[in-house]
């Protein structure tokens, strides 16, 4: 499958996941299977682009004990340090581009993640309207991520601890510019979804190189042979092959006779008259 087709397939999977998550829990395994396929497709795309470097999935795999005992449900809240970092976008960091970061953690740990508390809703006006209403009691609490999991007790604790560690890592801002690996990964996810992800060293756009200066080809009238043609000079800094994005003036239409300055006799530029056709359909 080509990279473009894989990008489209991944977007379709994400749209399906959004639709299924809004439906009643009729299809018991639909969300889980979609999460697995989303994670697999995403890892395949990155695996191909990073030239064989192992994907992040191998670093986050968990080993579960054998199931023993009845199934239980465990929950835990991980609060964001909003007071220490009031301007940091914790919600966007946890959710990721189109929810990919959150869904990746859910797929790898088997837990359910929900962003709750003050500032968890995108529409601030709607958040104020819902505050204090039934099922919106969490809006009175500080911003946090609610993690829940259902399994046997031993397996629940392993899954829950892994999810808590991942969320705490997301909620830990990186002060040094350029050292935030999570942000780099999310930007790569976004480029992947938009179909703009490319390997380092590959120029943007598919336009062929354009040769600067007077090397651009153009048809010259036979009567102009021997005349000195001059063109506006190209800066000396642009001495190599240029693309349209690197040198915008070189990206225009091919050169024509009007682009050049020549001291020519007017008679040379007179357009020759075409012979009269004897029949309108005769060439």
TrEMBL record:
This protein's GO CC annotations: nucleus
Any single biological process term in GO: regulation of mRNA splicing, via spliceosome
Keyword annotations: Developmental protein, RNA-binding
RNA-binding listed as a keyword: yes
InterPro entries membership: BBP-like (IPR045071), KH_1_KHDC4/BBP-like (IPR055256), KH_dom (IPR004087), KH_dom_type_1_sf (IPR036612), STAR_dimer (IPR032377)
Listed GO MF terms: mRNA binding
Keyword Repressor: no
Record-annotated K Homology domain positions: 72-172
Matching Pfam families: KH-I_KHDC4-BBP, STAR_dimer
Domain of life (superkingdom): Eukaryota
Entries under PANTHER family matching the protein: KH DOMAIN-CONTAINING RNA-BINDING PROTEIN QKI (PTHR11208:SF125), RNA-BINDING PROTEIN RELATED (PTHR11208)
This protein's name: Protein quaking-like isoform X3
Species of origin: Actinia tenebrosa
Native organism taxonomy: Eukaryota, Metazoa, Cnidaria, Anthozoa, Hexacorallia
Name of the gene this protein is made from: LOC116290262
């Amino acid at each position: 499958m080509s990279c473009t087709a894989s990008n489209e397939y991944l977007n379709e999977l994400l749209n399906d996941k959004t639709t299924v998550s809004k439906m009643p829990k009729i299809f018991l395994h639909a969300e889980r299977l979609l999460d697995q396929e989303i994670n697999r497709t995403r890892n395949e795309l990155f695996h191909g682009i990073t030239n064989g470097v192992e994907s992040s999935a191998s670093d986050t795999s968990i080993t579960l004990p054998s199931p023993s005992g009845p199934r239980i449900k465990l929950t835990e809240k991980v609060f964001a340090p909003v007071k220490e970092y009031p301007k940091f976008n914790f919600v966007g960091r946890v959710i990721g581009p189109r929810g990919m970061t959150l869904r990746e953690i859910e797929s790898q740990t088997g837990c359910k993640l929900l962003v709750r508390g003050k500032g968890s809703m995108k529409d601030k006006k709607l958040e104020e309207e819902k505050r204090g209403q039934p099922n919106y009691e969490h809006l009175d609490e500080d911003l946090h991520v609610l993690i829940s999991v259902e399994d046997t007790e031993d397996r629940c604790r392993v899954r829950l601890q892994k999810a808590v560690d991942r969320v705490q890592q997301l909620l830990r801002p990186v002060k040094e510019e350029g050292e935030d690996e999570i942000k780099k990964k999310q930007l790569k996810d976004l480029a992947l979804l938009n179909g703009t992800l490319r390997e380092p060293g590959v120029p943007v756009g598919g336009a062929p190189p354009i040769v600067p200066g007077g090397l651009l080809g153009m048809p010259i009238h036979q009567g102009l042979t021997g005349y000195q043609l001059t063109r506006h000079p190209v800066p000396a800094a642009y001495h190599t092959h240029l693309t349209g994005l690197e040198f915008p003036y070189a990206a225009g239409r091919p050169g024509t006779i009007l682009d050049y300055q020549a001291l020519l006799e007017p008679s040379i530029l007179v357009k020759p008259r075409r012979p009269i056709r004897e029949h309108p359909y005769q060439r």
